[in-house]
Design a protein that fits this description.
Shape: globular
Helix content: 10-25%
Strand order of the largest sheet: 9-8-5-6-7-11-10
Strand content: 25-35%
Largest sheet: 7 strands, antiparallel
Radius of gyration: 29 Å
Number of strands: 25
Structural class: alpha+beta
Distance between the termini: 28 Å
CATH superfamily of one domain: Trypsin-like serine proteases
CATH topology of one domain: Thrombin, subunit H
CATH architecture of one domain: Beta Barrel
Length: about 425
Amino acid sequence: MMKLGDEANLRTAVSNRQSHRRVIAWATPIVTAALMWMGAVTATAQQTRYVSPQTGHPITMARPSLESPVPPVGPQALRGADDDHFAERGGDVPSARQIDQQRERLFNELAEEFNAFDRLGNLVRRVAQLVKPSVIHIEAHKTENKGGQIESYDEAGAGVLISAGGETWVLTNRHVIAGASPQQILLRADNGREMSPLKVLADKNTDIAVMQIAASDLPAAKLGNSDDCQIGDFVIAIGSPFGLNHSVTFGIMSAMGRRDLSLGEQKIDLQDFFQTDAAINPGNSGGPLLNLRGEVVAINTAIASSSGGSEGIGFAIPINMAVQVADQLIRFGELRRGYLGVVLDPEFTSADMLSAGYQYDSGARVKNVRPGSPAATANLQRGDIIVEFNGRKVESDDHLVACVGLTPAGDSVPMIIYRNGKRYRTSVVLTDLQ
């Protein structure tokens, strides 16, 4: 289990065994806190400082506390014989006309700010309405043998429709449907239509799975380019948290390039996760993470949580990686991983690059080269630092492992390395990992 601080364990976001009581228990503290906050605000006296629209002089208005009500004052009481003259001189008692003008101006400013904010909310609504028909609710019936006893249970998840070779497929996480036969998997579209998959293909190294369905009339999702994503981008997650199908949540891209996550008993060799604070709960796995263009940029996969529910740390597989794996599963029935043949130094960090004065601030250092491997054929040596692979900057040893594993065998791949402080360009032809 991954530990975040001393308390948060990383769990795959698939289990649907939590009771409704837990959901209600979460909602209650939130409502109570909101009511306490509102009470604190309404019970506090306020002073507001305005500016006279005629003279520019400051005008102070005291707003009494709700706990100390003040008898209402009519408009005539505010209008003395020399009231306007007094207010013009910057007095403490503004006229009713000035108050009305100032309030009207503030309401207009508030309306302008709301319109800008509401445009964002309207955009989120439009994205959700457009993409939900391309999201599939998944229920997988599974059985386990625990201590000689057979346990049967259902797990919920989600998937997104893609088109490949003129056929319709559901792209999802492997762990959502692992252990269930096609007949034990129920797929439900947004319109309520139910079906079972014709074929199921999966890869445990990336936790990606695809399921072929006979539903060419359902719309495929529009896929984005996950390489264009940046930290801080607004994102939308759609899935089936706790079995509540087609639920929509909203957040931002919190981080990128998470590659050293421990997913409990499940080992994922090729990692390159996005991190998001969009609420992801058990049952969101396999569902899409969208940008505000309505494009799928990632597949929601896991959460870091000490409670089993969302705590603002969710992880998603970039769509470029997911589609690349899905394409090989559909074409070959398996992921054909590239093989380089080096052992990398996990202790090598960006600090080592910077202290050595290299132009690059990250890379992966070769600890050993396996005889007869593609790396040996390319004359890589112990101590070489690989800083670019196939045109991409190498960020760490885990990053290089993912890049190599997703590179097709047989292609000549360019690399940039440092050896003894000097930079060299070279290339390597990968083979299939046996």
